Amino acid sequence: MSVREEFDAWAAEGRDRGMEERHWHTAKHVLARMPVEAGDRVLDLGCGSGYAGRALRETADVRSYGLDGAPEMVRNAASYTDDPVVGFLVGDFEHLPFADDSLDHAVTMEAFYYANDPRAALDELRRVLRPGGTFYCAVNYFEESVHTADWEENVGVAMTRWGMAEYRDVFREAGFHVASQDTIPDREIEIPPDEEFPTDGFDTRTAMVERYRTHGTLLTVGVVP
Ligand SMILES: C[S@@+](CC[C@H](N)C(=O)[O-])C[C@H]1O[C@@H](n2cnc3c(N)ncnc32)[C@H](O)[C@@H]1O
């Protein structure tokens, strides 16, 4: 199945909102770290329900663009706001419809590893971000997060599984400085007591604690020199 087919189906079933709820545990910390200022233009890559653009508008006078490859996702996202400066568009990560140096910041939450060619996507981000612009890249699917290793098989679409060092290397190869890299734990997801395991997702409580609290979400921040 293609990424578009997969996420169009999710959107049609209303699963974009469930994703938003789960990802918000972490995304709110990512967005709070971004150095956005009034007047900035911010891209959300793989926007899903579009919550990042809506949230950024609550704290700063920015213009946001949510880009997603699944038209149904974009349709849903657009229907959740009537704010004229929170825009949404269908597109793919490797061909960003923006001029060189035209954006101030970009963010992506739980989407980057779906890129058909993540190196080409980074080249595109490097092209469209202005000098001093930042790219906040948050992923749960990364090599050190051992309990996510079977996702590609389960979701049924191709994914790129880099480790922390590889993210840093590839950012640098694309021309970014790596400003920071760390993992953000999800402290809000409810972890049941021992006796309730195994669950649908985890054999043991220890595994679920490792997945969410220990490994959490990898955030790599690139800055355009
Ligand atoms: C797991 S969802 C995450 C959505 C949202 N960022 C969130 O945190 O809930 C990944 C999204 O990225 C989009 N996506 C994945 N690969 C893409 C690509 N190569 N080009 C454009 N969109 C893509 C999918 O359509 C999907 O809506």
UniProtKB/TrEMBL annotation:
Organism: Halococcus saccharolyticus DSM 5350
The keyword Lipoprotein is annotated on this UniProt entry: no
GO annotation terms (biological process): methylation
Name of protein: Methyltransferase type 11
Keywords, sorted A to Z: Methyltransferase, Transferase
Keyword Nucleotide-binding appears in the UniProt entry: no
Entry GO MF terms: S-adenosylmethionine-dependent methyltransferase activity
UniProt xrefs under Pfam families: Methyltransf_11
SUPFAM superfamilies named among the record's database cross-references: S-adenosyl-L-methionine-dependent methyltransferases
PANTHER family: METHYLTRANSFERASE
InterPro entries, A to Z: Methyltransf_11, SAM-dependent_MTases_sf
Domain Methyltransferase type: 43-137
